[in-house]
Amino acid sequence: MASTAVQMLCVALGTIGLIGVIICSGLPRWVVGHQDDTEFHYGLSMECKNQSTGRMQCTKFDSIPSELQAARAMTAISCIFGILSLLLLSFGADFTTCIQNKNSKTKMIQTAGVGLMLAGMLVIIPVSLVAHNILRNKQCLSRDIGASIYIGWAAGMLMILTQGLLLSFGRPRAAGALSSSGAARISSRTSSTTVSSGGVTATSFALVSSYHSDRV
């Protein structure tokens, strides 16, 4: 029951982390720049201008900077890993009956944990690199860290936390242990039956011997 509750919690946390990665990659808030009365917001695929009047205009990049190209590729792979890992976790969890073999469930849980860890790292690395470049060139370019960077950090750490919980407390009970305990119970029952049968045989032999003695 404890592992089932942990698995359900991991599914919920992993889903929140995956949603965070999707928001991080889609929201044009990676880099915030200022020029006169205009505020610029740069994402992985578009640039938005927020004027002092409150009007925002977004346009797609004609040519994406190299660092944002790498970040977009890594966050896309992170989303793929996250989706596949959550599917494996859902099919291999104790609260679903899609897979009956306990050994297969254990392997699926372990694979899902590794996939969630990779998904978390693949979103933390690009947001950290972009944040490092922003802080390094902040004085000359007048740029700040956008909200997407913080969302990416939170989503990546949540996925890594989910992986730790899953591999530490969420693994299903091994099939080998169950088979051993079942075999031990069957063996003890067989021994008891054998002992009981031996006692009945001895009693029957004693009665037959007593009968023959009386006849003699």
TrEMBL record:
Listed transmembrane segments = 70-91, 112-135, 147-169
Signal sequence annotation = none
- Membrane topology of this protein: Multi-pass membrane protein
Entry GO terms, CC: bicellular tight junction; plasma membrane
Q: Where does this one sit in the cell?
A: Cell junction, Tight junction; Cell membrane
Protein keywords: Cell junction, Cell membrane, Membrane, Tight junction, Transmembrane, Transmembrane helix
Q: Which domain of life is it from?
A: Eukaryota
Task: Give the similarity note.
Answer: Belongs to the claudin family.
What PANTHER family does the annotation carry? Answer: CLAUDIN
Q: What is this protein called?
A: Claudin i
Which organism does this sequence originate in? Poecilia formosa (Amazon molly)
